[in-house]
Amino acid sequence: MKVLVLLFICSCLAWNACAQPSPCVSPPLMTGDVYMHTEIGAITTSGTFDYDALGQQIRIRSSGSGPSAVFSLDLLMQFQQKVAYAIDYSERTCKKVALDAPFNPIQIPPGSFPVAQTVLGTSSVAGMGLLANTWYGEIPEIQAKYTLVFSDNACVPLSGTYYSPESGTIIMSFYNILLGVRDPMDFIPPYFCQTEELKKVEDLPMTNFFRLMYSGNK
Fold this sequence. Notes:
Strand content: over 45%
Number of helices: 3
Shape: globular
Number of strands: 12
Structural class: mainly beta
């Protein structure tokens, strides 16, 4: 009997160790759709994203609405060069700005801890459910808190909620994600950005993604 009890305890400990999700990093090349809503400014956007962690660059094309107007947004962020381009194809205009934040890969940040493991859909039929892990974490230096949901397999982002006193609450959802990028040319500024490309980083106004997004609603 003692042997059976010992085996039972060991099996339970082994199961818990295996079931406990581990922090992960998303694939370096992804493309898909993204939805975002911000508390500050009451802005809602929906569009596409192209993500290149190898080159530390992101392209976001979206349309959205806020209290002031309906707007469209086309941002190319090149973190290695510490610059971003706000692109308007309809007007053939381009504005280059300096990024004041480093590149952060899509991942479960160090120090996060697992909250729950759930199945999106159903586990009753093979292939009809997606195992997902929910994570929670804090960034004390900026008083930020976040909750992230990633797939257990391949570490694909599904949704997230972020809060800080500066940004308020931001809700994001990712879907229709494919591995790889649609077109490498998406990470090259269009021809009408040539004049802006010549500007030096030190001469540019500083900004970040959220301020760029808010400016699109003005």
